[in-house]
Design a protein that fits this description.
seven-stranded parallel beta sheet; Rossmann fold; five-stranded parallel beta sheet; about 35% helix; D-2-hydroxyacid_DH; single chain
Length: about 325
């Protein structure tokens, strides 16, 4: 390996300069040699294959193609995949770990904005914002006594993931004024007590919460975790927030429930994603659908690049990767 290992960028063309603007590239090039060719689509072009043969590490991002056995055969020097985004499940094949290649993700850097977005949405939901806005638009100004605040509301958190725990940490402060329930089959009663929450079964959480916020990973066993039966358990006047993955909720069942006006839904993710133009959820006054904007957006995206650059520096020094992802992690991460 040369004094400075060779790094190859593999991500969509429209995000390269957002993730790694000039100042971050300058920092990166103090510890690696950046290959001049950026892989912005597939790995099957001559330029991509040439870059892969020279790669000691790949710095990946949104839109990176699957790194499978056939790609690894073309990249004999590859020692690490550093992902300047969140989940690696869509582009890192198990063969990567089988060949002893290190994998890191900037999920920690992406978590902060999602946590903040979720907390802001909880505040909106606690104030019954969608109903108040619709009422106001009809010319009916809610009286002061009709208005609702968040003190004493019960918040049900589904999943003590990285983001779920960040949300819990903020919800359980002395000044928050919330009671917090948690449903997560992998969390013990002792851990729940340390988090400051009450551990309950998922059905009980649905029945008992004023606001339900979803932070579980997208796994085969969590597909439609909130199905028609569980959605029917939600209280009248409740709110459902999803900043995790759309596949966790049965969309057809959600449309049926929300069409009654029985509860509100704040959805930053959907199934399918994106929702087709004219989808029923767009037309419901008690539903707010946003286009997957909870994570890093715009100038925030450089946070992902900065995290990845720090990880590359640690890798070149033989230090522990703070965002390291193991093959075993695939079973329970988003």
């Amino acid at each position: 390996m040369p004094d400075r290992p060779t790094a190859v960028l593999a991500m969509r063309a429209d995000v390269v300069d957002l993730v790694l603007p000039a100042d971050l590239r300058a920092r990166l090039e103090t510890c690696v040699r950046l290959h001049p060719d950026v892989i912005t689509s597939g790995f099957d072009t001559l330029a991509a294959r040439t870059a892969l043969r020279a790669a000691d590490l790949l710095i990946t991002g949104w839109g990176c193609p699957l790194i499978g056995p056939d790609i690894l055969d073309v990249a004999p020097r590859l020692g690490a995949v550093i992902h300047a985004a969140g989940s690696v499940k869509e582009h890192v094949h198990p063969a990567v770990w089988q060949r002893g290649i290190s994998v890191s993700s900037a999920a920690d850097a992406n978590a902060g904005p999602v946590i903040e977005f979720t907390l802001a949405t909880i505040v909106l939901a606690a104030r019954r914002t969608l109903g108040s806005a619709a009422q106001y638009a009809r010319g009916d100004l809610p009286g002061f006594g009709e208005r609702q605040g968040g003190d004493g509301a019960t918040i049900g958190v589904i999943g003590a993931s990285r983001i779920g725990r960040g949300v819990i940490d903020r919800l359980t402060t002395a000044t928050a004024g919330y009671r917090v329930l948690l449903a997560d089959p992998y969390v013990s009663a002792q851990t729940a007590a340390e988090l400051g929450v009450q551990l309950v079964e998922l059905d009980e959480l649905c029945r008992s919460s004023d606001i339900v916020t979803v932070h579980a990973p997208d796994l085969p066993e969590t597909h439609h975790l909130l199905d028609a039966r569980r959605l029917a358990l939600l209280r009248d006047g409740a709110a459902l927030i999803n900043t995790a993955r759309g596949r966790l909720i049965d969309t057809d069942a959600l449309v049926r429930e929300c069409s009654t006006g029985r509860f509100d839904a704040y959805l930053d993710v959907s199934e399918p994603e994106p929702l087709p133009h004219g989808h029923p959820l767009f037309g419901l006054p008690n539903v707010l659908v946003t286009p997957h904007i909870a994570g890093c957006q715009g100038n925030e995206v450089r946070r992902l690049g900065a995290y990845a650059v720090d990880e590359v520096r640690r890798w070149t020094r033989g230090e522990r990767l703070l965002g390291e992802v193991s093959a075993a992690d695939l079973e329970h991460i988003a």
